[in-house]
Amino acid sequence: MDRRWRNILLATGAVVLLFFFALSWYKYHYSMEVIEGFEVNAPELDQRLLIASQGSRFKNAVVATLVEQLRQRPIHIKVIDVSQLPAVDEEKWTALVLLYTWETWRPPLVAKHFVRRLNAPEKVIVVSTSASGEEKLEGVDAVTASSKMEEVPAAVDVVMARLEPLLP
User: Fold this and answer.
1) Which of 100, 130, 138, 161 is the most exposed place for a label (fewest CB within 10 A)?
2) pLDDT tens, 51-101?
3) Coil, helix or strand for 101?
4) What share of the chain is helix, strand, coil (3-state, %, to 5)?
5) pLDDT of 109-126, one tens digit each?
């Protein structure tokens, strides 16, 4: 192989390696955390709320505020990571809140598949965050936000307003 082709192959390999390094760096710095689940109030209560979320400062603050506002009511609240959605039986829940972030121009597949298989989509409130604050699944009436901490109260207010008819 002559010197010219060897240099072209080395340059191409370097560009590909740099591209994969950049993707890995982006994923490491901007991917969502896995949250630790917890429950509030007795599981035997008639009204049951499931909150499935990814971990980030914004989503953690929304979840914490929702739980704080609802904990005194007779509602069993369970918080899980979105990765556990495939095991969720929607029939067991009075209402569900789903919080996720669009990464690399798409929602988490587990969230997308969960929403697509719902039998009662009217009892699910979706909060979709993205850099633009406008991304959401097509055909889903979602609350959209850009994960700015100053948007937490407004996002919580919208979710609470949508929960009220589901958890009277």
Assistant:
1) 138
2) 999 999 999 999 999 999 999 999 999 999 999 999 999 999 999 999 999
3) strand
4) 45, 20, 30
5) 899 999 999 888 899 999
